[in-house]
Design goal:
100 residues, Alpha-Beta Plaits, 4 strands, alpha+beta
Length: 100
């Protein structure tokens, strides 16, 4: 299992566009085969910065999503709204101190 963290920094006047669009795709992404869930986190001091946090069975499964029709509709829609280039990390969990 891998965790994918993506930082998205939007133009201030486009964050609401993103949040509205996200509402239309969030369940589709979270239900994608071999995705074990997704969260959207919003910075409390800079609300135009958000992070997606998703769990994938494997990097191959993440790449299948990235090559999918769903992703090919999501990314071109939101990319023009970015203030800076997106940053992404695929990480393995080292420690989880959260209760199950």
């Amino acid at each position: 299992m891998i965790t994918r963290i993506v930082k998205l920094h939007f133009q201030e006047d486009r964050i609401q566009d993103f949040l509205d669009f996200f509402e239309t795709v969030k369940y589709k992404v979270a239900a994608f085969p071999n995705c074990h869930g997704m969260k959207l986190l919003q910075d409390i001091h800079q609300p135009n910065i958000v992070f997606t946090y998703s769990l994938w069975e494997s990097e191959d499964d993440l790449n299948i999503y990235r090559d999918s029709e769903l992703f090919s509709n999501v990314w071109p829609t939101i990319k023009p709204w970015f203030a800076t280039k997106a940053e992404a990390w695929s990480v393995n969990e080292y420690f989880n101190g959260f209760p199950d």
